[in-house]
User: What shape does this take?
Amino acid sequence: MPSASKSLETFPNPAPGRDFAIHMQIPEFTCLCPKTGQPDFATLFLDYVPDRTCVELKSLKLYIWSFRGEGRFHEAVTNEILDDLVRATKPRFMRLTAKFFVRGGIFTTVVAEHRKKGWKALPEVRLEQFPPETNTR
Amino acid sequence: MPSASKSLETFPNPAPGRDFAIHMQIPEFTCLCPKTGQPDFATLFLDYVPDRTCVELKSLKLYIWSFRGEGRFHEAVTNEILDDLVRATKPRFMRLTAKFFVRGGIFTTVVAEHRKKGWKALPEVRLEQFPPETNTR
Amino acid sequence: MPSASKSLETFPNPAPGRDFAIHMQIPEFTCLCPKTGQPDFATLFLDYVPDRTCVELKSLKLYIWSFRGEGRFHEAVTNEILDDLVRATKPRFMRLTAKFFVRGGIFTTVVAEHRKKGWKALPEVRLEQFPPETNTR
Amino acid sequence: MPSASKSLETFPNPAPGRDFAIHMQIPEFTCLCPKTGQPDFATLFLDYVPDRTCVELKSLKLYIWSFRGEGRFHEAVTNEILDDLVRATKPRFMRLTAKFFVRGGIFTTVVAEHRKKGWKALPEVRLEQFPPETNTR
Amino acid sequence: MPSASKSLETFPNPAPGRDFAIHMQIPEFTCLCPKTGQPDFATLFLDYVPDRTCVELKSLKLYIWSFRGEGRFHEAVTNEILDDLVRATKPRFMRLTAKFFVRGGIFTTVVAEHRKKGWKALPEVRLEQFPPETNTR
Amino acid sequence: MPSASKSLETFPNPAPGRDFAIHMQIPEFTCLCPKTGQPDFATLFLDYVPDRTCVELKSLKLYIWSFRGEGRFHEAVTNEILDDLVRATKPRFMRLTAKFFVRGGIFTTVVAEHRKKGWKALPEVRLEQFPPETNTR
Amino acid sequence: MPSASKSLETFPNPAPGRDFAIHMQIPEFTCLCPKTGQPDFATLFLDYVPDRTCVELKSLKLYIWSFRGEGRFHEAVTNEILDDLVRATKPRFMRLTAKFFVRGGIFTTVVAEHRKKGWKALPEVRLEQFPPETNTR
Amino acid sequence: MPSASKSLETFPNPAPGRDFAIHMQIPEFTCLCPKTGQPDFATLFLDYVPDRTCVELKSLKLYIWSFRGEGRFHEAVTNEILDDLVRATKPRFMRLTAKFFVRGGIFTTVVAEHRKKGWKALPEVRLEQFPPETNTR
Amino acid sequence: MPSASKSLETFPNPAPGRDFAIHMQIPEFTCLCPKTGQPDFATLFLDYVPDRTCVELKSLKLYIWSFRGEGRFHEAVTNEILDDLVRATKPRFMRLTAKFFVRGGIFTTVVAEHRKKGWKALPEVRLEQFPPETNTR
Amino acid sequence: MPSASKSLETFPNPAPGRDFAIHMQIPEFTCLCPKTGQPDFATLFLDYVPDRTCVELKSLKLYIWSFRGEGRFHEAVTNEILDDLVRATKPRFMRLTAKFFVRGGIFTTVVAEHRKKGWKALPEVRLEQFPPETNTR
Assistant: This one.
């Protein structure tokens, strides 16, 4: 059984000739409050446009797990995880959103972005948006 | 009874003089994980602005079905399906969104786009948006 | 291509030794208002506990289609469809719910039930209910 | 053009041999506050099991309209409308729910029922409930 | 301008011959934590079957306001408000639900009921339930 | 009683000096599949900025009704209705969205736009958006 | 008790040095159809960036009330209310959205805007949007 | 890597002295239509009160997977899976709900139950129900 | 700063003469999988009718925290927490619902109840249920 | 126990080299109406891009609490809180949204922004948006 680890593995981008986006939801983040030692919980949302490599799912899971016993502030840990992911995958664009559970009656969410130098998003093509349809849920 | 097939059929665009958008939801995509052989499931959302041809519904369904016994990674198969659809219909614009079911506690969605060389979307006219109203649901 | 028809076909109940329930949603019902000739629209919800036969899906679809050109009042047509389905399948229990689209600013829904003589539902086992979970929608 | 009126018309129940339910939503009720003269607004939900007659839709609409210029308290008017509808249709069962718009920071809803003497609901057959499915909304 | 007050006024039940229900939502309750002096917030849901009197809306609002400067525990204050409302209106049935805002990462809701001695609810008539329909929201 | 008709009537724009938008939802569209003769269903969403005339509600309803007995493909009929509405009202801008009911396990929606030559939308003023609030629903 | 009135009162903008937005929801609008005399209902959504004055809440309420006995078409009355509010408050920007209740099976919403000459919105700063969190509802 | 298999494994119930309920959602069921060979999709909801054994999660997953290449009708396969699970775990109570994806414009759901001979549910204690609260989603 | 602890503290029931219900939502439960050592996550829903004592909020929080480093199976830990809470508070009735996060593509929820010997719930008074109304969310 | 206070404390921005966003929801704001002395309630939404400092959570909570006994108008207090927060943290960008509870049948929300002189948001990278997925809620 693999265990929690700070190392992030990657695999080659299967379509490097095209800017495409990967969106990941990671609802199982937990760390400790550096002041009180009490557990904190968050859901992470990762959006990125890969360049040469994509982040490997299993190592991402073990990386997220590695914060379980560590003390981190909300604003700092969001930037730290973004920095680690950027270092590992060197993406064209990456955004990390961390929704933390309520503390002191206040709900905090932190959003941080990285852009590769010189990279520019294609002009957006806005289409109408539609809610998903199906009954197999 | 027709069977699963990689061939995609088309019909002539009934309004080629105008940029208009077609949105399709395909909730029945399944393939296999190339590493473990286990089934993977996704809902596909296809958005495109046709040029001379539109994709024919029935052949699209059989094409989707053709992945049922094949091994594919999430990021790769999304780009492959987009490439196949682009080759068949040569659209002005096409976007494919694939929402995969959770693996390892993480939900992954992949979004890839193709733009015809030289084509530019008309400047967007933003109108207020309203939720659908009716009781015949 | 089969066409609209009042005849309802059935197939043998695969588990006649057990009271089990079948729920069907039919969002494509339309008929005409007998007074004004204008189209009316409804979604039908059919719930039944089969006895020896179940209603066959395709013939049900053609049966529903058969009302397209006929004049019917909301309260009467709901009871008529229930009567036709009961005659065809002789179920242990059947409930038909017809949600009609707004007329005169008022939304009308009609619910009618049939119970086989002597049949009694098993005492209900109430379990907590949970909303569906998944992202493949 | 017909005008607001207190008279309620009926038509014969098309299925008097069966207890079946009619549900109506009437989102356009308004009257005046008897103390201040200011307008009050409510949505009415009517549920009934007809006996020999059903309430006619158009006369119901004109009846609802007749309260537009009249002063009424929330609790009283809900009982008054129920009484009028019972008098007109003599139903086996009738329930009227009136959801009034907020006043003084408090939202009030009133629910009143009538049961025909000697009438008893059939033992309920509880089936699992399912949310409506369709995309034609 | 009237001010916060513990006195609750009533008016005569307009339909004492019938068991009917009144539902009130009061989203503006606040008191203080008796231990820490910090503000607590709740939404109150009041359901009752009046006997001879109904609670008057304005005095209810001023009564709710009267807790703004007072220390109260969640479980105790819910029972106290129910007791006060029962004393004032002597209802056939009354239920008070208090949904408190999160404290210590835990959400607490308290539900208390009073039944008049000898009063029994009529056997329930269960009808299918339908979500509200309208676009004037 | 008026009957289904292809003619669309208009009335003069009451505020021609200003670009303003009209949004209409028409949940009762039905036509036939040209291949199989089976009924198809859709909800239409019409958005337009009128120039000198607006489309008259009743004639729009009869126009929609006129497709009930006619065979049409999804992509073609959306463009045809847009063309008819543009011819009748000569709007500054018009967008028609047609959400069709599922066929072959795939949900299709078609969106087509018309822009008057030389007309340009004012630069958009983006304000925060808020969900509707009220309990009279 | 004040009564319905066409006059709109204002108070000085408390922060005239800054472009800020006020959003108001007014779910209690009703007028009459000029053709049939029947009541029409709408919810109004008002968004504006005040200049020197803001509209006073109570007078706005009485103004809205003043349409209760008057005949107005949907498109015209939306523009008329916007004109009245612009005349009274001379805002930098104002948008009025009127969602009318269904007529003839069709739901109509009208959106009209006014911009002060020479005023330009600041370049928008787009932040991620999050749904509200709390249980005191 | 384990593979699809019809065998269901169990583990001892950790609290056999108490009737408690286990609810499982399995959104990844797929089989083939026995008539046409085309893929069918469903979400399964399993509710049971274990007796001496509980079903083991991994073997359940492989069991579900085993239908991927097999032809089954909706009504039959729901009863077959229930029978297999009952044989493997001999539960006090078990209910299986299978929500199938739309076919022919009609959505079908099948619900089947098993009760151990002589077992009776405890009288239900009905408490008010509350929607889940949290922002870590 | 207090730390994780298995001890549960209580305070005297403020209204022991009445059966009333307390509902608590605890979205921050985490433990480890006994087989793999990987983290598991759940939201706990606690419903109880207190007898002489209520569970103290802070000690409940520290108790929940105490599972963070311990291995537990889903079915077992739900029964264990219920047993601990019953031992500490000796309630008239208690129900614990544990919604675990997806594993192996399957979502599991466990519901366990305790009833004090001889205690019986009062006959339920069923009132219509209404969704919460307010905009301060 | 700390008490209500107008002073706002800060801590150093952990990632000053990057524009990142912090979003806070504060559902517990209450003040008094300056005219009538009656309580007003609002939920505050704070969005900001910090420069050198971030606002400290606990002092923010005590600051919000400080308005409990003070009279403030909706439009004024929103601008005042924004001004105080800007003075304390000197952010690159800050937006405050205050959703007030209904008064006089009208719901008011106020949105005010501050931009640091010379600061410009990076060109936005628009990605598709997805609703959160998980069952641990």
